[in-house]
Structure to design on (51 residues):
């Protein structure tokens, strides 16, 4: 439990600036992970029955 708290959440998250878009780094990481999972769901085949 102390290792999780050692990250230091007492400061605001850094932001990525891209034109008029501001996005926090943690939100960007979550969005990228969601896109990776979505892409894998499109590419990985469904399991087939072996009857």
């Amino acid at each position: 439990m102390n290792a999780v708290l050692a990250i230091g959440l007492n400061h605001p998250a850094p932001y990525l600036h891209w034109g008029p878009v501001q996005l926090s780094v943690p939100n960007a990481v979550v969005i990228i992970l969601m896109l990776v999972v979505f892409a894998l769901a499109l590419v990985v085949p469904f399991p087939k029955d072996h009857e």
